[in-house]
Amino acid sequence: MTLTGTTLLNGIAVLTRLLTALVLNKVLAVMVGPQGYGVIGQFQSFASMVVAFASAPVTNGVVKYTAEFGGQENRQHEAWRTAATLGLIVSLATSLLLLVFQRPLAMWSIADAGRSWLVVLLAVALAFIVLNALLVAILNGLKQLRSLVLANIAGSLISALTAIGLVSWHGLNGALAALAISQSLAFVATLLIFRRAVRASLRSLFGRLDPALSRGLGRFAIMGLTSAITIPLAQMLMRDHLADNFGWSTAGLWQALWKISETHLLLLTSTLSVYFLPRFAEIQDPNELRRELRRGLAFVTPLVLTTSALLFLGRNDIVELLLSERFLPMLDAFGYQLLGDVLKVISLVPAYTMLSHGQTKVYVVTEVLFAVLLTSLTVWFSDSMGLRGAALGYALTYAIYGVTMWFVVRSLMARLGRVPPP
């Protein structure tokens, strides 16, 4: 399927996710306010870290090998079995650690040991969250886009309805509980969709580990673990800094800025993942890779510039509509945040070459360095400029990241040019 076709089909799932996210953000903003929003963001970062850690063996590596072994059903099943078994082992070990250290982890993540039950909920749900991620990755690698779209729609609706129901019933605690369990509930719907689209039962996904595939998936797991640690940890450190220096309300405003960015970039970033990760994995010719990169940039750059301009022009109405008037102080940082969004999207196109070609060392180094850079710039500029400085740090980080990614692409193209064609 073409990039345009992928975007249009994926847009159905994204539209559903976008609408549910808008409704959910509105409910949370009205019911818990900026301060509660900051606490939710802190636990969300912690949960994201745990989930990404446990699901590292079953995400990007599965997409790559499923696409790479196209037409070789036995090899695909070997890759799935290896990934599923590794994922189950890691998720169960992680769940055990969460149960043992539930109180210290609750204290560290949200400064409230009395809410350690949230860590227990996450531990119970973790294996199902990992299995859901595995099935979605297989559908992506097989380019079963209709089934993938349906699974994403189901997941978005289930997560949103769970969150809205629990926050309406029990306020902030309900919202936090929804973060822990909603992805695991989506597994049931994903499994039903998967069984209709793929000739493989869930039981057949578990079995003997293939040593070579384990090593290959391990490289992708290292990349996933790097993201699992660096990105959410950086967000937690930045949020803590803002809360300590300006209060949890400011931290909640910063969290709202990030949420608007995530919602704004949802269509573009999800399309990049769905289309470019398996597409780049297939390409071994540097000239073809160069053409695909140009097509990607020509496609996403006008879109992100247009959407950013529209958001900036309607920023007052958008904040009141999506959140509430209590979040209007964030408008001072809106322009810098949108600039960061533009630079982020443009830099992600070349960045996907690292993931698709398993450039583990480069990926790990850049992820760590730019997480440190983002945190440092946010702290530095926010000390003198407040919330606006935090958004400026975000924009500057992705300006530097984008330049770095093009050096990475040039290195990859040079390496591919030295490899003789099969």
Automatic annotation (TrEMBL):
<feature type="transmembrane region" description="Helical">
    <location>
        <begin position="216"/>
        <end position="237"/>
    </location>
</feature>
<feature type="transmembrane region" description="Helical">
    <location>
        <begin position="334"/>
        <end position="355"/>
    </location>
</feature>
<feature type="transmembrane region" description="Helical">
    <location>
        <begin position="117"/>
        <end position="142"/>
    </location>
</feature>
<feature type="transmembrane region" description="Helical">
    <location>
        <begin position="83"/>
        <end position="105"/>
    </location>
</feature>
<keyword id="KW-1003">Cell membrane</keyword>
<keyword id="KW-0472">Membrane</keyword>
<feature type="transmembrane region" description="Helical">
    <location>
        <begin position="149"/>
        <end position="169"/>
    </location>
</feature>
<dbReference type="Pfam" id="PF13440">
    <property type="entry name" value="Polysacc_synt_3"/>
</dbReference>
<dbReference type="InterPro" id="IPR044550">
    <property type="entry name" value="WzxE"/>
</dbReference>
<keyword id="KW-1133">Transmembrane helix</keyword>
<feature type="transmembrane region" description="Helical">
    <location>
        <begin position="175"/>
        <end position="195"/>
    </location>
</feature>
<feature type="transmembrane region" description="Helical">
    <location>
        <begin position="297"/>
        <end position="314"/>
    </location>
</feature>
<feature type="transmembrane region" description="Helical">
    <location>
        <begin position="257"/>
        <end position="277"/>
    </location>
</feature>
<feature type="transmembrane region" description="Helical">
    <location>
        <begin position="387"/>
        <end position="409"/>
    </location>
</feature>
<keyword id="KW-0812">Transmembrane</keyword>
<feature type="transmembrane region" description="Helical">
    <location>
        <begin position="362"/>
        <end position="381"/>
    </location>
</feature>
<protein>
    <submittedName>
        <fullName>O-antigen translocase</fullName>
    </submittedName>
</protein>
<dbReference type="InterPro" id="IPR050833">
    <property type="entry name" value="Poly_Biosynth_Transport"/>
</dbReference>
<feature type="transmembrane region" description="Helical">
    <location>
        <begin position="45"/>
        <end position="63"/>
    </location>
</feature>
